[in-house]
Design brief:
With 167 residues, the chain is an alpha+beta fold. The protein contains four helices and nine strands, in the order E-E-E-E-E-E-E-E-E-H-H-H-H.
């Protein structure tokens, strides 16, 4: 994910984070800032000046990112809303509970355990990643519900394959 903000006296600051690796980069006026440690960067906002600015990061892609520059905080990436976390967790919990209950699997088979949990976890995280790029709440809810349905369908497909191999 890549986000750009404009800060008075510093210029255009771009924050970039890889969801899969967690590695992050900070650019100030399109120049890569020097990474001092995992969450601290240093840059020269003006190429003519020897003065450096230290940028500290707080948070991550899912929980929101704040840049601390010169004792001021700037929100770059917003936190997940409560309903986004709830729907993502429901996707995961539904598959595990339904898939591990013999009575419920007899009604509609869904893979539970490691297979169902893995499918549901991937669907939930994929939904959250896509949600971060959407501006409106109804779009986010729709995407998360779509990944919930996808999780159920993939769990059903996995359960049918497992049941056909056992017969």
């Amino acid at each position: 994910m890549k986000k750009t903000i404009v800060i008075a006296g510093l210029g255009r600051v771009t924050y970039e984070e890889s969801f899969w690796t967690g590695k992050n980069k900070v650019y100030v006026n399109d120049v890569l800032a020097t990474k001092l440690d995992k969450k601290t960067f240093e840059c020269q906002p003006d190429s003519n000046s020897k003065e450096t600015t230290t940028i500290n990061l707080q948070g991550n892609f899912l929980m929101g990112v704040t840049l601390n520059i010169n004792n001021a905080s700037y929100r770059v990436i917003e936190k997940l809303k409560w309903y986004e976390i709830l729907i993502a967790l429901l996707t995961f919990v539904f598959s595990l509970v339904w898939g591990n209950s013999i009575a419920l699997v007899a009604i509609f088979p869904i893979a539970g355990g490691a297979i169902g949990g893995g499918i549901a976890g991937i669907c939930a995280l994929s939904g959250l990643v896509i949600c971060k790029s959407l501006p409106k709440a109804w779009q986010k809810v729709l995407v998360l519900l779509g990944f919930f349905v996808l999780s159920v369908l993939l769990g059903y497909l996995a359960a049918e394959i497992i049941l056909s191999l056992m017969a």
